[in-house]
Write a structure and sequence with these properties.
about 220 residues; mainly alpha
């Protein structure tokens, strides 16, 4: 029987430190959070941070990597190769919404990610940019497939605005979403409905602006 490979995050003390650090980083920010604060919350000694992470910055990076990448380790890839481009876009948007709202992430994750977006940590931007670039390239390729006659600027701009819509919905707090849109519930069905809306509006807008224009009728 093949030996199961452990995730890089599978270690009780390591996970306790990540969870404590994530909660404090989300609440107070990186600079205002001390290693002592993290260890007190995690119920560990200060030496455990250096043992598992080599320092506070490495712990911060591990915290963001854990929340951003843990789903990729266990996810089963869903093939969309044979789907129409419109359905590919919907499935991609749905996957992004689910990844933030429905997967097994800690409660502090959305707040930490919002803080990183508003107050980016220079040392961590490479990972953030790489993940965003992956989503950007996937969406751009699908939009180009839907409206191949659109120019490069329009395709890039549409990609950026779609990702902005996904981010604004997925990363907003439940309190704000309920205040703005009481009927919105981002459970499994709610994510499907919102993903369909975002994809359909993007497709309709692109086709209206850049779709094939009817040939002009010849005058009699």
């Amino acid at each position: 029987m093949a030996r199961k490979v452990k995730s890089r995050f599978e270690h009780d003390t390591r996970l306790r430190l990540i969870d404590a650090a994530g909660s404090l980083f989300a609440e107070k920010g990186f600079a205002a959070t001390t290693i002592r604060d993290i260890c007190e919350k995690a119920g560990t000694n200060i030496a455990s941070v250096n043992y598992h992470f080599s320092g506070k910055m490495e712990l911060y990076e591990a915290t963001l990597q854990y929340t951003l990448l843990k789903d990729q380790e266990n996810a089963s890839p869903v093939s969309t190769k044979e789907l129409p481009a419109e359905e590919k876009l919907y499935q991609l948007v749905l996957g992004m919404l689910r990844n933030i709202r429905l997967t097994d992430k800690p409660e502090w994750f959305p707040q930490l990610l919002r803080r990183e977006m508003l107050f980016p940590t220079a040392e961590f931007q490479e990972l953030i940019q790489r993940l965003l670039k992956q989503d950007f390239d996937k969406v751009k390729a699908i939009i180009a497939e839907i409206v191949p006659q659109a120019d490069k600027y329009s395709i890039n701009a549409s990609t950026l605005t779609l990702l902005g819509q996904v981010k604004s919905v997925a990363m907003e707090s439940d309190e704000v979403l309920q205040a703005l849109f009481p009927d919105l519930k981002l459970d499994a069905k709610g994510c499907q409905k919102m993903a369909r809306h975002i994809a359909d509006v993007t497709i309709a807008g692109m086709q209206a602006c850049y779709g094939a224009k009817p040939a002009k009728k010849k005058r009699a």
